């Protein structure tokens, strides 16, 4: 495991001694862009929530299936992915451009390390485009203005909000963000959400998040299935609805339904 991020020099404001959500996520996904403080916090959560790393991987596998669905079933060729995370296998543009190389993707994140890595590693096919916006998810004017210079916002867009709404603790503010973004997109657009929940592990999930925040980690919250369903109000929720990431249209195996994980998800189409 490295103690130096692979994209080179560290950006301004960078702290390696405070656990950070993108780097813990990277640790759980088996990446090397994380530090002792991230690994300690990741291990602490894993002790309290056994299987949390599986949940991170299930969320990532859901991203692949959701993007494939939007491209193949929905004809989507443009994506706005907010809360990019550190690049790993099968990022949104790779999944989309494997099927349709002309896909255009705008990534948004507010973390300088994530953006440095993204710019270095997330490169587009020559037929499509990849762009990065340095913004907080709450800065919707800026996000929509810049995204509109790369994407054609009069045509359908796949909005990816995976592992990001959990950092907007206020329910009303989180719903306002989703509504404002979906209002700016035309009919035929899609919304994908991945979000931690306490539905599987109950109070232990809330306690692990409180402990994470006590260690200085990014403020975070879990939401219930019912709360997640509210984000999709007014949209056509794609079957099977809001479920564990591991159970959203999983690949067939002879061993029955995969176990539930503590990341739930859903995909919906704007009518
Ligand atoms: C857990 S990672 C999720 C990565 C990826 N979307 C996935 O699901 O694999 C959360 C990401 O959201 C970013 N993030 C956290 N708070 C944010 C905010 N207020 N505005 C923009 N990005 C934020 C973090 O920097 C991190 O890259």
Mean pLDDT level:
91
- Number of domains in the coordinates? 1
Q: What's the total count of β strands?
A: 8
Give the ordered list of helices and strands. HHHEHEHEHEHEHHEEE
Describe this structure in words.
The chain is of the alpha/beta class and about 270 residues long. The chain has a single domain (about 20-270), classed as Vaccinia Virus protein VP39 (Rossmann fold). The protein is built from nine helices and eight strands. The chain has helices at about 20-30, 35-50, 50-70, 90-100, 110-120, 140-150, 170-185, 205-215, 225-230; strands at about 80, 105-110, 130-135, 160, 190-195, 235, 245, 265-270. α3 packs parallel to α4. The chain binds S-adenosylmethionine (SAM). S-adenosylmethionine binds near residues 25 and 109.
Which labels suit this protein?
binds S-adenosylmethionine, single chain, globular, alpha/beta, 271 residues, eight-stranded mixed beta sheet, Rossmann fold, 9 helices
Summarize it.
With 271 residues, the protein is an alpha/beta fold. 38% of the residues lie in helices and 15% in strands.
Write the layout of secondary structure elements.
Layout: H1 21-28, H2 36-48, H3 52-72, E1 78-82, H4 92-99, E2 104-109, H5 112-121, E3 129-134, H6 140-150, E4 158-162, H7 171-183, E5 190-196, H8 203-214, H9 225-230, E6 236-237, E7 243-244, E8 263-269
Parallel strand pairs: 1-2, 1-4, 2-3, 4-5
Antiparallel strand pairs: 5-8, 6-8, 7-8
Helix pairs in contact: 1-2, 2-8, 3-4
The protein binds S-adenosylmethionine.
